[in-house]
Structure formats: C-alpha cells, structure tokens
Design brief:
GO terms for molecular function: glycosyltransferase activity. This is N-acetyl-alpha-D-glucosaminyl L-malate synthase BshA. Pfam families: Glyco_transf_4, Glycos_transf_1. The protein is α/β, with parallel strands linked by helices and 375 residues long. It is built from 13 helices and 13 strands. The chain has a seven-stranded parallel beta sheet with strand order 3-2-1-4-5-6-7, with helices on both faces. Strands 10-9-8-11-12-13 form a six-stranded parallel beta sheet, sandwiched between helices. The longest helix is centred in the C-terminal third of the chain and has 17 residues. The structure holds ligand GMT. The site of ligand GMT has 20 residues, from helix 1.
Length: 375
Amino acid sequence: MKIGILCYPTYGGSGIVATELGMSLADKGYEVHFISSALPARLDVTNPNIFFHKVNVQTYPLFQYQPYDIALSSMIYRVVNLYKLDILHAHYAIPYAYAAFTAKQMLKAEGKDVPLVTTLHGTDITLVGQHPSYKHAVEFSINQSDTITSVSESLKKDTLQFFHIKKEIQVITNFIDNTEFEECTSCQRSQFANPDEKILIHVSNLRPVKRIQDVLEIFKNVNKKVKSKLIIIGEGPEMEKISEFLEHNPELIGHIKLLGKVNNLYHILQLSDVFLLPSEQESFGLAALEAMAARTPVISSNAGGIPEVNIQGETGYLAETGNVEAMSNYCIKLLSDDELLAKMKINAKNRALEFDLKNILPIYIEMYKNTIAKF
Ligand code: GMT
C-alpha cells in the first residue's frame, strides 16, 4: 500500500500523530509520502520507505495572501500521479481535506481518482472550523472524504453537533509508542529541582486554548504549600502572559523554568511529578498521554476528550475548566502524599499502555484497507 499523508509540520498534536503514524507504517513496509510545507518535526527521512514532498509557494507581489492551498492541491495531484498512491490521509480538515478534494477533482478530470481519509483532530472542528469564513468549506470537504475519523468520542459528538455530516465517523484514538519512553538518564532531576522539591510540568504550543494563566495560578497556589518547581515546554502566543505573571509575582522567578522547544521531551517528562493540562478545549490530549507514558500523573480540566484519557482518582484528577482552586487542591493533595503519587505514577503508565501503538496501528491499517476496498 502506498499512502500519502498531508499534515502540518509543526509541533501541534495533529502533525505529531501524522508523523508517528507514517513512520510506523513505513517500519511495517508501507511506502509513505508526506506532503507538507516543511519537514515534519519528528520525521525520520532516512527510512527508505519514507518520502517527503515540500509544498513550495511561489510568492508574487500582486498577492496580498500567497495561495498555499493551490500549491498544496497541485503537489497532492502530482505526487498521486507520479508515485501511484493508493490512498490519501488528510490530518486536520483545514486546509488538507479541502486541498485533497481539489486534487481528486483534477485526477477525476483525467479519469483517475484516489480514496481520501480525513482525520479530525480538534480545533479544526471545535474552534477554527466553526468560523463563518471556513465553516461551509470545512463541512463540504469532510463530507467529500471517503472515510472520516476522529481522535475521540467527544470530538465525534462535537463534529455531529456543529456540522451536518452525512457519513459515519470512526473513532481512532491518539496513540503512543511506549518503547520510546524507556528509562533514560540523559538528564537529571537535580538539573531542575532540589531534592526536596516536586516538579510540575506543562507542555503545549502556548495558545489561549491551553489556559496558561491557569497553569501559572495553579503553580502559585501549590508552591505556597509544597516546595516545587514548574517547567514549561513549548513556544507560542501566550509567552507574554508568563513574563507578565512573573512581573507581578517576582518571588516565583527562580521557580519557573521556560525551556522552549526541546528534543528530549520524554526524558524531562520522566523527571516530573505532575503534568498540568487545564485546557479550555482538548479533543483528546496527546500531551497528557505522553506524560502518562513517562509515568507522570495528570491534573487537568474535564474539557472535550480529556476524560477519555485521564481517569479521575486513578491516573490523576480532573476539574471543571477554569476551576483553578480545585486543580490546585488536587495537586497539593497528590504532591503531599508520596504513597499516592507513587501509585498514580504506576496507574498513569498502565493507562498509557492501553493506548499503545501496537493496539492502534492495526486499526488504522484495517481502516485504509476497508476504504480502498469500498472505493
Ligand atoms: O492543540 C494542539 O496543541 C494542536 C492540535 C492540532 O490539531 O495540531 O491538537 C489537537 O490534536 C491532537 C492530536 O490529535 C489532540 O491530542 C489535541 O487534544 C488537539 N487539541 C485540541 O483539541 C485543542
């Protein structure tokens, strides 16, 4: 099977899922073609079964906005033709499902076609996709897909609520390759905290939907009761909020460490005691699953699909979005009880094993085969 994967190359969850999926398929012997605006962050192009096709956008002074979607459709059409792809897989509806639909029309004009799978990841449905500027095109291109998948039951429900979808949506959850989370000693706990301090961590692309202010307020409350440090990994528009917070809370300057984008995320997660995810919206919460795979319990909001991953009182605790007090209290309770923390670390890892790649990859492969068979 020759598979074309269309995805964002950045650190967002959809790009990570697309890349990990493509690399696992390549390891199984499938030929996988990535089509994206830049090399996806975690993609290993040394694998002989992996091909990368960069979408080049010709800049022209007449255009106020450069037409990326046209360049993308042209590239999809070209790669399908050149490499005789069997199936296309669009990760995130905007613009991938739409550009793939256009490429299919170009192929159809020549008596050819290729089946299209669209995976809905989250904000393409719950945020951006609902904007009046995009809504009709998003709904249309989802309906034009041959197979639609969503990363959680919650996202499926939201999709059916916000859009008029005429086809079945198959839920295929996010997954994790637990073999990548084996014990590692490349960095030490002492690099981030004193022996008597606990480590809280937050990882995201620091967008408003992640509620960074809540992360900071929770840490402020926790730090009053439990000796602790907060590590923030990632970059994004809410970086300013962190500086502002530190201006108002200078006593916490030495307690909050901003690491930006890191290559050894898993190793740092392994050193941490609790992962904070107070998001406004989260279709699944891949970041929480990565933390659990590194044996780190999660204190989160109960937004979207998070309760499908983080189990109350077992792998961590959940509270209503914005309930900083409840999340702080859960955190204090967990970090003040070493026995409870040790138990939750084990539970978190066991939960991550349920979402292991080896359980989810066969579901993707079967879905591709079914899509091709009924095409
Ligand atoms: O939220 C992000 O950081 C990026 C975003 C994306 O689409 O790139 O992530 C979404 O997709 C992930 C992978 O399927 C999910 O695990 C995240 O929960 C989801 N984010 C939101 O819904 C906000």
